[in-house]
């Protein structure tokens, strides 16, 4: 498992996303899938940066690993206020823009782009786990 810990600030976003992107790229994900992973991670990180530490400063820890069950797992941890973003209901994307409630699209996007998403609170830490199934080797058609 590889980890990176940085202060929860927008100026660190690029480093955190690059860390995740590099790990995904080395595992053989297509360029398109790496971009989807980056987008989902960015949405999660922006939420943490903007909302986890309203009155103080804190850190974000991003850990990446290849799970034995053929999954790429990204854990994003913070010690900010407890918040399970997965408890938000999906927005009504069929409603007109003027009738939609503000917020929730980022979490909706994370759920759509990742194969699985989990949240738990552990020892005063929020832990968001993003899971992506590993790419399958292409079959050559030769027997």
What does this structure look like?
- With 143 residues, the protein is of the alpha+beta class.
- It has one domain (2-133): 2-Layer Sandwich (Heat Shock Protein 90).
- 31% of the residues lie in helices and 27% in strands.
- The chain contains three helices and five strands.
- The protein has helices at residues 13-26, 31-51, 105-113, and strands at residues 2-7, 59-67, 71-78, 116-122, 125-133.
- It is globular.
Topology of this protein?
Elements lengths: L1 E6 L5 H14 L4 H21 L7 E9 L3 E8 L26 H9 L2 E7 L2 E9 L10
Antiparallel strand pairs: 1-2, 2-3, 3-5, 4-5
Describe the structure concisely for a colleague.
This protein is α+β, with helices and mostly antiparallel strands and 143 residues long. The protein is 31% helix and 27% strand.
Q: Which CATH-level-2 architecture? A: 2-Layer Sandwich
Largest sheet: 5 strands, antiparallel
- How much strand? 25-35%
- Overall average pLDDT: 86
Secondary structure tally: strands: 5
Please bin the fraction of helical residues: 25-40%
With strands numbered from the N-terminus, the spatial order across the biggest sheet is: 1-2-3-5-4
Shape: globular
- Please identify which CATH superfamily we are dealing with: Histidine kinase-like ATPase, C-terminal domain
Keywords:
five-stranded antiparallel β-sheet, Heat Shock Protein 90, alpha+beta, 143 residues
């Amino acid at each position: 498992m590889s980890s990176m810990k940085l202060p929860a600030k927008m100026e660190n976003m690029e480093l955190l996303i690059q860390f995740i992107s590099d790990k995904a790229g080395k595992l053989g994900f297509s360029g398109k899938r790496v971009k989807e992973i980056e987008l989902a991670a960015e949405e999660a990180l922006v939420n943490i940066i903007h909302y986890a530490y309203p009155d103080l400063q804190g850190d974000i820890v991003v850990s990446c690993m290849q799970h034995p069950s053929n999954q790429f797992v990204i854990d994003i941890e913070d010690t900010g206020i407890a918040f399970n973003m997965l408890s938000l209901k999906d927005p009504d994307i069929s409603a007109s823009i003027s009738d939609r409630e503000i917020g929730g699209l980022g979490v909706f996007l994370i759920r759509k782009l990742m194969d699985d998403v989990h949240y738990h609170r552990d020892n005063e830490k929020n832990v968001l786990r993003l899971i992506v199934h590993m790419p399958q080797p292409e079959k050559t058609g030769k027997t």
